[in-house]
Protein: DAK2 domain-containing protein
Amino acid sequence: MRRFAASVRATEAQLTALDQRVGDGDFGTNLRSGLDASVRALDQAGTVSPTATVRAGGPLRTVATVFLDGVGGTSGPLFGLLLTELALAAVGPVLDVAALRAGLTGGLAAVQRVGEARPGDKTLVDALYPACEALRVCPEQTGSRVALAHASRAAWEGARSTARLRARRGRASYVGERGRGVPDPGAVGVGLLLSSAGGVVTELPPFVTGPPPRRPD
Structure:
């Protein structure tokens, strides 16, 4: 979560530029404000109970609550739902492949239930669905780092594919053909979330214009 916040801080201007072309232009700002507040909440949680037994779902639940309660636009509720499902699935001390699979799949279902988007509608579903598929075929013994690397590569492929699409859901649907050639900001946000498990992303172009740089598995 802290690396996700750092990734969004580093790429906020680029996220905003994308959203200015297909949306309200507030995606980068909303995402950053939510994650800045999330980091403060995580710091506070650590101060209140520094010796508590750590469960992987704890930080995820903290961030999910911030997004659901305090982040505007469509990004707040949707990312809040995704993180809530991840938190519910992460009942152990580590976010293993089984928890990742259950959490992302549950998050996808929750996002689709609320937004009614399908793959091909040019939304964050176009990144989240292939990430879920990548995790579905991961063997149970796969380490979480490797599983997340597979999921993030699939998510970026999905995010890049949205540049070819005309949006059928969300704010981007209002701009029609003018949105072609621009990847969906929400899908890019999913790519950032998953990639940040392996390190901070400082530039979007390598990820949204071509195959993402490979990180060690």
Notes: The chain has nine helices and no strands.
